[in-house]
Design a protein that fits this description.
Blueprint lengths: L1 H9 L5 H16 L3 H28 L1 H9 L8 H16 L4 H29 L4 H4 L6 H16 L7 H32 L13 H23 L7 H32 L11 H20 L6 H52 L5 H9 L1
Helix pairs in contact: 1-3, 2-3, 2-5, 2-12, 2-13, 3-4, 3-5, 5-6, 5-8, 6-8, 8-9, 8-10, 9-10, 10-11, 10-12, 11-12, 12-13
């Protein structure tokens, strides 16, 4: 029970990034014809989402002070947008993998609820309580706020044609979230580049959070691509937005592609040149998600702007996503086993020592000094 309680108390909000990563790689597999892998990851993701969400709910109920401390921490507060993104990615799986739009609608409604809750609380706390310098608190993980916002746009755009008479409203809402997420990205990436260029960054702080620089652009591209694909299905005034949406979507994809070689160079600088030892943390799922998202967004972009050769990029990029997911998943399992074993050993030691302590308290075991005196006598 002590191990379970400690797990609930210390569960990291970034664990929802595992659901994001698994979900988007599942969708990529389905789109590229690896249907068995896609379905297997879909089933795994349902279990992972249920477990992680339950742990977070229990943490709020049992350890509110710890939860609020994370929410008030400027380095962690925006990471809670992973909850929103994970919910909407799983909803997108229900459409893409098993064609269950009614279930996906439930996830979209829940995602909107979570987005409202997290965005209002996290940003309000930042605006009111943050008194630290930008170089201390700012990192690439802040862009999860843009990812979570765009995830609502993605699922809304996928579902818009399924809403019948209210399709226009759903499409309008999806455009609004797409624009909001794009705005958040442009503001935050400006600050992040400023922080990277003008302030020294330690090797330990680099790589995992900064892959979201590309991941946020990839999901923005995906949202724009799905809007372009579904505009003709919904019709109405949105036909006038089609050219603008295609151009802006291509802009985001180009910027995201530009980030990839720089992130690889940063990784080489951290692990090869500075010899930083790899140690698993949930933040490493933030490296897997962009790889899967770039695969999917490139596939959808090729459909949206009708340039088929772009699909070839996705056909090769999916293998990088598979390798990254497998490596991080195995690292996570090994880390959990090590932690569980160490906690079990500590608990066993306490149990072994407890009877001796109790007996001494009850006077059944003489202290060492008394025993020595008796022997001397």
């Amino acid at each position: 029970m002590g191990v379970i309680k400690n797990t609930i108390k210390t569960v990291h909000p970034a664990y929802f990034a595992m659901v994001m990563s698994t979900g988007i790689i599942s969708i990529a597999s389905q789109l590229l014809g690896f249907t068995s892998i896609g379905y297997g990851l879909f089933c795994l993701n349902i279990v992972a989402y249920a477990v992680i969400l339950s742990l977070q709910v229990l943490r709020i109920h049992m350890f509110w002070d710890n939860f609020y401390s994370d929410l008030s921490n400027p380095k962690l507060s925006l990471v809670f947008f992973t909850t929103v993104a994970a919910t909407n990615v799983l909803g997108a799986q229900f459409i893409t993998i098993v064609n269950q739009p009614e279930i996906a609608k439930g996830f979209w409604y829940f995602g909107i609820f979570l987005w409202t809750l997290v965005s209002l609380s996290a940003f309000s706390i930042l605006f009111i309580k943050c008194d630290q310098r930008v170089e201390v608190v700012l990192h690439g993980g802040w862009l999860i706020s843009a990812v979570g916002t765009q995830s609502v746009a993605v699922l809304g755009a996928l579902l818009a044609p399924k809403f019948g008479s209210t399709s226009n409203f759903v499409m309008f809402s999806s455009f609004a979230w797409w624009m909001t997420g794009s705005f958040l990205y442009m503001i935050l990436i400006t600050l992040i580049i400023y922080r990277l260029v003008f302030f020294k960054v330690s090797p330990d702080a680099l790589v995992p959070p900064y892959w979201i620089n590309m991941g946020a652009l990839a999901i923005t591209t995906l949202a724009g691509s799905i809007l372009c694909i579904n505009i003709p299905k919904v019709g109405g005034p949105y036909n006038d937005f089609l050219g603008f949406t295609k151009g802006l979507t291509l802009f985001f994809w180009s910027f995201g592609t530009w980030w990839i070689p720089f992130l690889v160079i940063i990784g080489v600088w951290k692990y090869a040149i500075n010899k930083t030892q790899f140690k698993y943390t949930p933040l490493y799922w933030g490296m897997v998600f962009p790889l899967g998202m770039y695969t999917v967004c490139t596939f959808r972009l090729s459909q949206a702007i009708q340039i088929p050769f772009l699909v070839n990029i996705s056909k090769y990029f999916i293998y990088a996503a598979y390798i990254a997911w497998t490596f991080i998943f195995i690292s996570m399992i090994r880390s959990m086993i090590k932690v569980a074993i160490s906690k079990e050993i500590v608990s066993s030691n306490k149990i072994i020592k407890a009877p001796e302590t109790t007996q001494r308290e009850e006077g059944r075991i003489a202290p060492q000094s008394q025993t020595t005196t008796i022997i001397k006598r």
